[in-house]
Amino acid sequence: MGAVMTKLTLWNNIDLGMVARGAMKPEDVRMETVDALVDTGATQLVLPMDVCQRLGLSWLKPLGVRLADGKPQEVPHAGSIRISILGREMECSAAVMPAGTTRLIGQVQLEVLDLIVDARSREVRVNPEHPDGPMLYILAVA
């Protein structure tokens, strides 16, 4: 499968919370729209350091990750982020790599937003079984 790219809109979720409480004007919310590689081999959202800094994200406990070359590494971890892909939104955090690194959308985001990758057209699409929104399955425990 060739590279699959899509638009990814990112907001500082803490800014959005401040707007909801009336402590910040909506036009002051830090946000950015970028092109991102959809990587079905990645688990987590990956953002370059410069994007995280422009969004003013909070720093969380570093993440232990295994890179594509198999090397384990500890990387910075940033949140709280609200993302939108094809009009579907979620809150998440991101593994942070050096400035200029390709932005990656991982399996977690695809699963939560109920998006599928069309290998033939090299596009991300809304799951046609749930066109009106993500359908999350919750295991009921008795």
Structural write-up:
By secondary structure, the chain is α+β, with helices and mostly antiparallel strands. Helices cover 15% and strands 44% of the residues. The chain is built from three helices and nine strands. The strands form two sheets. Strands 1, 2, 3, 4, 5, 6 and 7 form a seven-stranded mixed β-sheet that branches. The protein is globular. The mean pLDDT is 92.
Task: List key phrases describing it.
seven-stranded mixed beta sheet, two-stranded antiparallel ribbon, 3 helices, 142 residues, alpha+beta, 9 strands
Shape: globular
Structural class: alpha+beta
**What is the rounded Rg?**
16 Å
Q: Number of helical segments?
A: 3
Biggest beta sheet summary:
7 strands, mixed
Number of beta strands: 9
The parts where pLDDT drops under 50 for at least 5 residues are none
Strand fraction: 35-45%
Estimate the helix proportion, in percent: 10-25%
Question: What is the average per-residue confidence, as pLDDT, rounded to a whole number?
Answer: 92
Q: What string, H for helix and E for strand, traces the elements in order? A: EHEEHEEEEHEE
Measured distance between first and last alpha carbons: 42 Å
